[in-house]
Design goal:
63% of the residues lie in helices and 0% in strands. Helix 1 (4-20) packs antiparallel against helix 3 (37-53) and helix 7 runs parallel beside helix 9. It is mostly helical.
Length: 209
């Protein structure tokens, strides 16, 4: 089981990876987008760091994720803030108010919740070259993982998210500014999918004791 302290480390590791790869994310985004995805991801990562540091011991995980999601949603920088805020807040949607640790079952519910919430605000699917190319495979892998160890669930999701982000190279963009470039975007991964895979990888890397 994952307690509050370890989950804090998981979020901190996600933020660290996002900050570490910020320049690379902007480089990807510069090819067919505004070139600022890394800047926005940096803002999101810093919000995560700040809120984790300020997490009150008495605040339940569900409430913390909801508040963190709202804070991330307020980050300016195109659609990334609202989308990431929805993803982060969605991790807590299926948790009970009194859940204080993350079990394997809770981890699967967390991933299901983030996908459900995202589908309320975007019609993007796998193949549209968006963050959903990482999110959907991650959620499917989490659901398919039968392990009772939540670290296994997070690892399966991270592996699938990375594979999905890499696969986004073969698709033509159907959303955002990149959409106007059509098939020219084939061969370049989606920056949002890559940053999402980094977020999930960070969670997985720190999920084990």
């Amino acid at each position: 089981m994952i307690d509050r302290e370890r989950f804090s480390r998981m979020l901190e590791e996600s933020a660290r990876l996002m900050l570490e790869e910020a320049d690379a994310l902007s480089e990807i985004d510069s090819k067919f987008g505004d070139g600022d995805h890394g800047i926005t991801v940096t803002k999101i990562a810093k919000v995560i760091q700040q809120q984790v540091a300020a997490w009150d011991e008495g605040q339940p995980l569900k409430d913390f994720l909801e508040d963190l999601g709202m804070d991330v949603m307020a980050v300016r920088g195109g659609s990334a803030g609202p989308l990431y805020g929805t993803l982060v807040g969605g991790l807590g949607v299926e948790l009970a108010d009194d859940e204080t640790v993350v079990t394997g079952d809770a981890a699967r519910r967390m991933f299901a919740g983030c996908l459900s919430e995202l589908r309320d605000i975007t019609t993007a699917q796998v193949g549209d070259k968006t963050m959903m190319d990482a999110v959907v495979p991650a959620v499917e892998a989490a659901q398919a993982c039968a392990s009772d160890d939540p670290a296994d669930v997070f690892a399966a999701a991270a592996d699938a998210a990375e594979a999905g982000a890499a696969a986004s190279e073969q698709f033509a963009s159907k959303f955002g500014r990149a959409r106007s470039y059509g098939e020219q975007t084939i061969g370049t991964p989606d920056a949002g999918a890559v940053s999402t895979s980094l977020f999930f990888r960070g969670l997985a890397n720190a999920a084990r004791p």
